[in-house]
Amino acid sequence: MTYPDFAEALQARICADLEAEKIAHTPRKRREADERRVEILEVHIAALEERVATAEVLGEQRRHEAETAAKKIAALEAHIATLQEAIAKAESLGEQQRQEA
To answer: What's the predicted TM-score (pTM) here?
Structure first.
């Protein structure tokens, strides 16, 4: 084992010992309360993750619906333009026939 490896192993062991000592000196009721709080937070996180997933699916649906609506609007506007051209031609033809009559 090289000196840097030995130093890292020693440092990890010291950290583990300090953590174990901290846990050992933490009153049992406090540890249980902390564990319960962790459980509650984990349940809350799971619920939030589920909501995020649902929101992402809904967002994708809304995006798709918006794209579909935009395409439909473009098609309708093109159709309106075609109809307006037809109306203008018909009015022009009508005016021409009126003048000829």
So the answer is: 0.50
